[in-house]
Predict the structure of Integral membrane protein.
Amino acid sequence: METLRLVLLFVHVLGFAALLGGLLVQVREDTKVVNPVMRDGIGTAFLAGLLLVGVLESLGSPDHAKIGVKFAIGLVILVLVMANMRKPSIPQGLYFGLLVLTIANIAVAVFWSPVHA
Ligand code: HEM
């Protein structure tokens, strides 16, 4: 089970790294868009995150409050990305909102005490 947790965590990290990369690559661009890298990234991070919760439940009692916060932030990002996927451009405010939420979820993951003992 530990191997499965590590493989899912590996996929989870690749997912949100793609999301963050898809955002940062256009930080200096005047026109911001939701690109396929962001879509695939949040989709992968979200699915791997949910599967990770399942694995952690079987390994013990994970911190549900931390997972709840991460799930809520992840869901907002997922919905905003999917809803704006086909738009020729997105407002600067939405772009920076997605960037701040993504960085916030990394901060929650890293600075909030480990999700499982
Ligand atoms: C943009 C979205 C997300 C980002 C940036 C993100 C970031 C991270 C990071 C940096 C870690 C590693 C933390 C560490 O091991 O110290 C992590 C682990 C984890 N994430 Fe996420 N996450 C996101 C979405 C989600 C979602 C939606 C869920 C599901 C509810 C989730 C559940 C988890 C779990 C359970 C772990 C712990 C894995 C473990 O230690 O075994 N994450 N996440």
About this structure: The first helix runs from residue 2 to 24. The two ends are 15 Å apart (CA to CA). Residues 2-111 form one domain. The chain has one domain: 2-111.
